[in-house]
Specification:
By secondary structure, the chain is α/β, with parallel strands linked by helices. Helices cover 38% and strands 17% of the residues. It contains 13 helices and eight strands. Helix 2 crosses helix 3 (136-147). The longest helix has 16 residues, at 242-257.
């Protein structure tokens, strides 16, 4: 099963500690009304580095920026965003070449995506940003925070490509290794494997036909799927790509030193991150809380949007805003 790709790279550590686990009634598994296929948001576009990037922009207040990974889009956050728009401005962008954003002639390396995300934040002049990040969006978000820590109020993350899960010391093997070969081009460019198999295989409840149509939309042709092929080729393993090994290692070191408040969401069984990963975060990161959201694999936003949304909104209110938020978090930690 495709989910084994993710489970095989989950780091085995020890049993996690976290804030108290929610009851089943709280988890959202018994609240199907929180899960909808609808995407009832106005599409907006901004020119970034000569291309248009698509985003949604809902609510008012200090901005919360949602960053997705492979092979998703702003659609991934549709059922979480309504929980924060009463008090905050929620912005979810489609990475370049993904979702409804343009598909310029790029290699779609991590560094390409970083240039566009950084320029997107600058184009919207976002200040005092809270980052909510997942998959490759986690690397992009943490990298931005390392370079602009005075502009980041807090970071909430889940299923992240960061230490101790990555970088991997050994070269990519199995299905992930094949993505770096011609066989990978057939699997992803011709068969659209990331959308057709890995995505639905990484959601416990399964995805409806309507939801799958949203996710298929950006990738109707082999040429349009190039970004979804390049992402697994960018995973740092066995020392390659060296540029990404360096980035992810720097993130790991920075997380030990920063005072930015963080919130880590985890699900069971998880995929890239699990219970043991949560314990590692508590040990390594100063201002962090962990939140168990219930059953989920990699795309936990599709299984537990209500738990994620409610916990995110509560955490964001408690850390305050701007410089005040940083001072409150430090006072709490040293209290």
């Amino acid at each position: 099963m495709p989910i084994d790709v993710f489970l095989a790279i989950t780091t085995a550590l020890s049993v996690a500690t976290s804030i108290p686990s929610p009851t089943m009634a709280q988890q959202g598994a018994d609240a199907p009304s929180a899960i909808s296929a609808d995407f009832p948001f106005e599409s907006r576009y901004v020119e970034v580095l000569g291309s248009r990037m698509h985003y949604i922009d809902e609510g008012e207040g200090e901005p919360i920026l949602f960053l997705h990974g492979n092979p998703t889009s702003s659609y991934l956050w549709r059922n979480i965003i309504p929980f924060v728009t009463d008090d905050y401005r929620a912005i979810a962008v489609d990475l370049i070449g993904m979702g409804k954003s343009d598909k310029p002639d790029l290699a779609y390396t991590y560094q390409d995506h970083k240039r566009y995300v950084d320029a997107f934040i600058a184009a919207l002049d976002l200040r005092n940003v809270t980052l909510v990040i997942h998959d490759w969006g986690s690397v992009l978000g943490f990298d931005y925070a390392m370079e602009h820590d005075d502009n980041v109020v807090g970071i909430a993350f889940m299923e992240a490509i960061i230490p101790p899960s990555f970088p991997r010391g050994e070269p990519m093997g199995g299905p992930l290794g094949r993505y770096r070969t011609d066989a990978g081009e057939d699997l992803i460019l011709e068969q659209n494997q990331f959308v057709e198999q890995i995505l639905p295989g990484s959601v416990v409840r399964g995805l409806t036909d309507e939801e799958m149509e949203y996710y298929r939309g950006p990738y109707p042709t082999p040429e349009s799927r190039v970004p979804t092929l390049q992402w697994p080729r960018e995973l740092p393993a066995g020392g390659e790509p060296a540029r990404n090994v360096e980035v992810v290692n720097r993130i790991g070191g920075w997380m030990r030193e920063t005072d930015i408040p963080m919130l880590f969401f985890w699900a069971r069984p998880g995929a890239l991150n699990n219970e043991a990963f949560a314990e590692a975060m508590v040990e390594r990161v100063k201002n962090i809380q962990t939140a168990f959201v219930g059953v989920g694999r990699h795309f936990i936003q599709e299984d537990q949007p209500e738990m994620i949304g409610r916990t995110l909104a509560d955490w964001r209110r408690r850390i305050g805003g701007g410089l005040r938020g940083r001072l409150v978090a430090q006072t709490h930690r040293h209290g």
